[in-house]
Amino acid sequence: MKVYSIYILNKAGGLIYQNDVNPGLTKLTANDYLVLAGTLHGVHAIASKLSINIDGMESHQESTANANSALLVSGRSQDANNNKSGLQSIETDLFNLYVFQTLTGIKFIIITSPNPGELKKSYDSANEVFKQLYIVYSDYVMKDPFYSLDMPIKSFLFDTKVKEFVT
Amino acid sequence: MSDDIILPSATSMSTLTISDVSRTGFGYNPSVGTASNSITSETSNILLNRKTISLTPTSANSIYDKNVSSKKITEISLSSLSFLFCEIVNWSHKNSKGIQDLETRLNGLGYQIGQRFLELTKLREGFKNSKREIRIIEVLQFIHGSFWKSIFGRAANDLEKSQDVSNEYMIIDNAPLVSRFISIPKDYGNLNCSAFMAGIIEGALDSASFQADVTAHSVPVDGYPSRTVFLIKFHESLMVRESLRFG
């Protein structure tokens, strides 16, 4: 799996980082990148609202009341509205797109070469990239005093580190 | 006109009781709004019955209670150090009038650490092994070696003497600890946050009666983007002292 491009979206859906790490994709205009980011953000949000709700609203209310004790016991959020991964991947003949949303609402998006193999395997390798990306983001963006939250990322150290693990 | 205090979670204090039922349970829920912070029987139950671990440092082997002269290496988290330093830079930046001023402020903060840390390093060397460096080259080797090791965990990468100017020396660190995660934006010119570390060196040298001005300069090379040269410029009087003592 070859990573073509990496996008990072802030929690409002604004594009804060875009890097074509490997050649292969046609360049878009700066405006188109922003539109693409915003669209993905919206689709992700809508997709997370799609859910099978057999028991109706009442049971839903009950489940949120117990959500916190469940959260404290298991350490995992089971609330239907919290951090649901609405859209995880888009697969086409020409590229695959994977989305990963952190608990704080930042979205990492990677566009990779299509890999017509085992589906789970490509998920795993995408997750490995996301893990690395998240680590590098937390280190080189969050610990940079010259970065202001939700603004475009201009750190060159971050650039270098990202290039290191995708190439 | 009544002066009722408006509480964020309820209209008045009296309505906020332990039996208040929150539909959403524990914690703040933005979809419900501020009311979600009120205490319910469920949440109070969780809070009262949950087993907790005390984070207050009371045990004898906590980092706060260790003997200061202990030779055992004490480690702190690089992340917390980085976040603290990040905030130090932000705070100094907010108060400063310009890039030069920001560097001076960082230098000043480091200076006090250097003065104190020299004392601590000497104490940890032990009374028998410890000696006072009286030559410039000796004190520089001490700073470059054991002082650097005790404060940053490893010796600095290089120690050089300027060929043109007799009172200038350079300590080179390939990846300074405090600015490992920092990238300086282009419009900040040649600002280097390791000015803080330069301050530490300056404090230690001054405290050891080697008056010097120390500045940090970025000299990146391949593979080490944050490589920094600490330029140490000793005062003229010191060079006179050195020549009187050792000819």
Automatic annotation (TrEMBL), chain A:
GO terms for cellular component: endoplasmic reticulum; TRAPPI protein complex; TRAPPII protein complex; TRAPPIII protein complex. SUPFAM superfamilies: SNARE-like. Its main location: endoplasmic reticulum. It comes from the Eukaryota. GO terms for molecular function: guanyl-nucleotide exchange factor activity. One of its GO terms (biological process) is chromosome organization. Coiled coil: none annotated. This is Trafficking protein particle complex subunit. It comes from Scheffersomyces stipitis (strain ATCC 58785 / CBS 6054 / NBRC 10063 / NRRL Y-11545).
UniProtKB/TrEMBL annotation, chain B:
Its main location: endoplasmic reticulum. It comes from the Eukaryota. Part of the multisubunit TRAPP (transport protein particle) complex. GO terms for molecular function: guanyl-nucleotide exchange factor activity. The keyword Endoplasmic reticulum applies. Keywords: Endoplasmic reticulum, ER-Golgi transport, Golgi apparatus, Transport. Plays a key role in the late stages of endoplasmic reticulum to Golgi traffic. CDD domains: TRAPPC5_Trs31. It is found in: Endoplasmic reticulum; Golgi apparatus, cis-Golgi network. InterPro entries: NO_sig/Golgi_transp_ligand-bd, TRAPP-I_su5, TRAPP_component. GO terms for cellular component: endoplasmic reticulum; TRAPPI protein complex; TRAPPII protein complex; TRAPPIII protein complex. Belongs to the TRAPP small subunits family. BET3 subfamily. GO terms for biological process: endoplasmic reticulum to Golgi vesicle-mediated transport. This is Trafficking protein particle complex subunit.
